[in-house]
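Feature request, filed as a ticket because there's no other form

It would be nice if the structure record came with a short human-readable summary line next to the tokens. Right now we just get the raw output. Example of a typical job, pasted below so the devs can see what we mean:
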Amino acid sequence: MRVTREFAITSTYRSPFERVAPGVFTLPGQSVGRVYVLEGADGLTLVDTGLACRSRNLLQRIERAGRRLRDVRRVLLTHVHSDHLGGLRALQTNADVEVLTMAENSIDLQGQIRTVSDGDVIKELFGGITVIGTPGHLPGHASFWLPERGVLFAGDTLASVGGLGMLPSSLQHDVAQVKRDVQRLAGLAPSSICCGHGPPITRDAASRLRAISDALLSRAGHGD
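Raw output as currently delivered:
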């Protein structure tokens, strides 16, 4: 019997990761600063790195899954708030990682930085991950779309604490832009939505996101 890497991750007793989609995982029990792990042919890719205070837990879980820290090849960084990049320094100390992020964020980072722009396709992963500029939450914020698996990594454009929605207006850089970002993401019709806050949405993701987008359009039509 051929045992694949994914089988090794998901079949261990009390698995350190939860499966979102084939080759896509998250750390269980997180509500703030979610980290997602993508298992590709050349190793692991992380979407965000979580809080600094949880970086040891992140590294330990990677090793408990039967992988080496040097298997982590790259980090896709949605934005530079501390609950998303806090674990990056610890990861860079233990692995030779490339950080992919929007150009606006590169000034705040050290190490191997590869700047990406809206519409770029990261071809190393699953036939390509598309970069989607979603600057409403923060200038330089990006979402990442994995069409082959139907998975949307929304960062903080969306949140799923207590249900799918948006973060409070007080936490947004530009509320009007966030609404436009949400409407753009709804057009993707994702099968799964991975937010920075809250659990992954894996059931009725597209219809739930479309309902939010339609509500925003309706309010705009009424001048709200």
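Something like this underneath would help us a lot:
The CA atoms of residues 59 and 164 lie 29 Å apart.
The chain has one domain: 5-221.
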